Amino acid sequence: MKHSQLWRVSISSACLLFVSCAGAMAAPSQATPATDLHTLPGFKVELLHSATPGEGSWISMVADNKGRLIVSPQGKGKLLRITLSHGQVSKIEPIDQPITSAMGLLYVDHTLFANGDGPQGIGIYCLRAKGNEFEPPVLLRLIKGTGEHGSHGLVMGPDKKIYVVSGNFTKLPTDLLPTSPHKNYAEDQLLPRAEDGRGFGAGLFPPGGFVLRMDPDGKNCELFAAGTRNTYDIDFNTDGELFGFDSDMEWDWGTAWYRPIRINHWVSAGDYGFREGTGKFPEYYEDTLPANLDVGVGSPTGVRFGTASHFPKKYRRAFFMLDWSYGRIFAAHLTPDGATYDATLETVLHGTPLNLTALDFGKDGALYFITGGRGTESGLYRLSYVGPKIHEPSPTREQRENKKDGEVARRLRHDLEFFHGKRDQRSVDLIWPCLSSEDRWIRYAARIALEFQDVSWWKDRALAETNPFGGLTALMALARSGPPDTQRDLLMALKKFPLDSLNEEQKLLKLRVIELSFIRQSRPAPDLAQLAIERLDAHYPSTDTEINHELCQLLLYLHAPDAITKTLDLLDHATTQEDQTYYVLRLRTITNGWTLDQRKHYLSWFDKNRDNIAHDAVTVQYFKDAGRDYSDGASFALFISNFKKDAINSLTPGETNELAAFLPPPTNEAPVVVQPRKFVKDWKMSDIQPDLGQLKSDRSFRRGREAYTAGQCILCHKFGKTGGSVGPELAAVASRLTARDILESILEPSKVVSEQYQNTLLSLKNGDDVVGRVVEETDQKLIVITDPVKQTKVTVLKSDVASRRASKLSPMPEGLVNTMTKNDILDLIAYLQSGGKRDFPAFKK
Predict the structure, then answer these.
(1) What is the mean pLDDT of residues 556-563?
(2) Residue 77: CB partners within 8 Å, gap ≥ 6?
(3) Number of continuous H segments (helices) and E segments (strands) in the chain
């Protein structure tokens, strides 16, 4: 079947980062002025250079051995080298080598390593400096993964190996060493997860985003750690510990499974719990590691430790992190906390629009940073400290002891990590005491080391261990690594640790051990299932939300008699939308144990008005920190709609007849009639761009809102509490796009298409085309949403597909504003910039 062109969405979303374009993109003539940026007292920010046409939109940067800055534009533009003199730009020159769109750059020992597009495809290349030039690039390793969630930053470790971080759409290399630390990972969902409401990431399974470790020649590649969404950059601190800044999934705002942007301490075999859709692990699962700090909403990009800076001492120890969406430079101050670190956050600089992408420190000790990405304007800035010298008091005795304790704990963790990927029977005696550590990071490292050892060496010891942490951690290893015939002994061994005898952390650990046994070993025998129900049901519901969530899963899975009744009661009394979505998610696929009244009770939730429901206070604060109002994520409504469909599909024919009044009737929707508007002009950038200065005042809020409606933006975009979920949420678009960028997105929507909104073009063997978003894929078929507004799905057999490629056209059509006057368009831009607020300065007379 031929498929008509769909609505196309172009305005950039809040999520990370860039897409490849057909060629180098001409940036606007002026980046955001330094006078519009705000920084801490004593710091000075300067705009050194605004990218000129032909220099592109910049996405990565590194300083070479002479302090020159090497910058990569997105798309096909050449790498640039920027020479600095006394903190100012003295020269910009292209590097005449065939490396483009590098999302990671590393310079070590007169060698430039680039993670980008080269002569042999997307991969990691090295270019050796020869005088003032570079020798042709040498491919070290191809990378299977492109675009926003492909492979990103590079850093040289203290072990003289290269560490490479990749997003969750990147495929693992096929030649990973068998000694890779991170191996025993899985989806590990007790109840079925739901895919993202709009299909983003559908069908993808662990490991998620990951870090590879390899020799400088690209050989001996290992999977170091994984389980993140889309970390763009990584760096080592002076202790030799690796850190990254991971992205959120902003489409999940308002759900129980939303995870904010976060600082992660990457350690050997670390699994940070990212799974697609609703499957993201809560931080208390001990088969994962928690964030050092949840930061909030935003789009993490470049990171660097301030070691090479000339800033005050505390900033030389700080972890500097960039937020692309909301124009913020953070400094995270890390202090030892056992085998990891605690973190506090400080905003060093902020401004809008300021699409921060990369940073590095120059030989003068200043912080140089760049903006760009997705075709937005690029600028090079310099942040220096010009304030008085700050005297820091000598560390207190407590601080000195804390630092020493941290060194000891990290050394112990490293000793345990030595056995990751290695089998040595003597290691069991060394590992065992560490399973009982009060330090979760030590327990984690010990358990991973134990899982690499032959189960027969330690199974009996695990079953006999009486220390709560030691016994439960060892039994988690057995659940993850032991054969199914160990399940009975494992579950009986848990009787030594009754829930009433455990603290909250241990209770959650025990419940997760039970889940992992059921997931990895098998559904328990009837007598074991009955025993589990008897032991767990008495504790459900609990006064603790997290324990309730795990008991809910387990008892629903086991078909406990009262599980549905108790879960519905918790749903009724949940005070936040986030908590309610958890119970709605878990109940949706349960097929037995329902009464008709319970079915009615559950289905009635979907029709309730949730406009005034409370939200998790911490999440609301994240939005305030970013200077914007809270809004549900773009996938929220579709998640809820899909949950209702799942629930309806779980009904028996008899239940369907009895519940007809609670089910949506078949619909034959009449087409939406839009009043025709008179054609005005086929608007071009040159028609309106010269008048963007008129956006400062005297614009009309009413006309802007009317233009937004007339342009049918509301069908596809969420703007505050209203709108569709086809395209990106627009309430904070002004924090990342200039007026010119917004105009270009409206008039030329296909110039830059984010990977998150890019359609797939399937050319069939019979000559037909199918265009849309692939939301599900198996070995035999593809399920494609061809109409994102109506959520029309088409099934295509893979055997019928001749070719498959990303569509270069945005789902948003051109010409949407051709029935508007110039003033209408200017009012529309002002309305978008305002976030829907009448008191926006542009509306003042």
Answers:
(1) 97
(2) 23, 24, 25, 54, 55, 56, 100
(3) 20, 33
How far apart are alpha carbons 478 and 474 in whole angstroms?
Answer: 6
Give the pLDDT score at 382: 98
- Omega into 541 within 30° of 0, i.e. cis? yes
Q: pLDDT digits over 271-298, tens only? A: 999 999 999 999 999 999 999 999 999 9
Q: What is the per-residue pLDDT across 753-777, written as a single tens digit (0 to 9) for each?
A: 666 667 778 888 888 888 877 766 6
Q: State how far the Cα of 374 lies from the Cα of 218, in Å rounded to an integer.
A: 29
pTM: 0.86
Place of tokens 């005034």: 612
Question: What string of DSSP letters covers 74-99?
Answer: STTPBPEEEEEETTEEEEEEE--SS-
Residues 568-615: tens digit of each pLDDT: 999 999 999 999 999 999 999 999 999 999 999 999 999 999 889 999
Question: For residue range 318-354, what is the model confidence (pLDDT) as tens digits?
Answer: 999 999 999 999 999 999 999 999 999 999 999 999 9
pLDDT at 669 > cutoff 70: no
CA dihedral (79, 137, 126, 366) in degrees, to 10, reads -20
Task: Decide: helix, strand or coil at residue 326.
Answer: coil
Per-residue confidence (pLDDT) for residue 231, from 0 to 100: 98
Three-state SS at 171: strand
% of the chain beyond a pLDDT of 70: 90
Distance CA 775, CA 1 (A): 19
- Calpha distance 754→707 (Å, rounded): 24
Give every CB contact of residue 342 below 8 A, 6+ residues apart in sequence. Answer: 292, 334, 335, 336
Round to whole Å and give the CA distance between 295 and 291. Answer: 10
Structure tokens at 83: 């020479």
Q: Quote the CA–CA distance of 528 and 107 in Å, as a whole number.
A: 58
Contact 409, 339 (CB under 8 A): yes
**Burial of 232 per CB tally in 10 Å (0-12, 13-18, 19+):** buried
Residue 13, pLDDT > 50, answer no
Amino acid 1: pLDDT: 38
CA distances for 698 relative to 36, 76, 404, 703, 829, angstroms = 22, 41, 62, 12, 13
With a CB cutoff of 8 Å and minimum separation 6, the contacts of 422 are 179, 452
Question: How many beta carbons lie within 10 A of that of residue 112, not counting itself?
Answer: 24
| Coil/strand/helix, residue 481 | helix
Give Cα 497 distance to the centre of its chain.
Answer: 36
* Nearest residue to 191 via CA among 563, 495, 545: 563
- Which residue type does 10 have? S
CB atoms within 10 A of CB 391: 7
The H-or-E segment that residue 246 falls in is: strand 242-246
DSSP secondary structure code for residue 23 in this structure = S
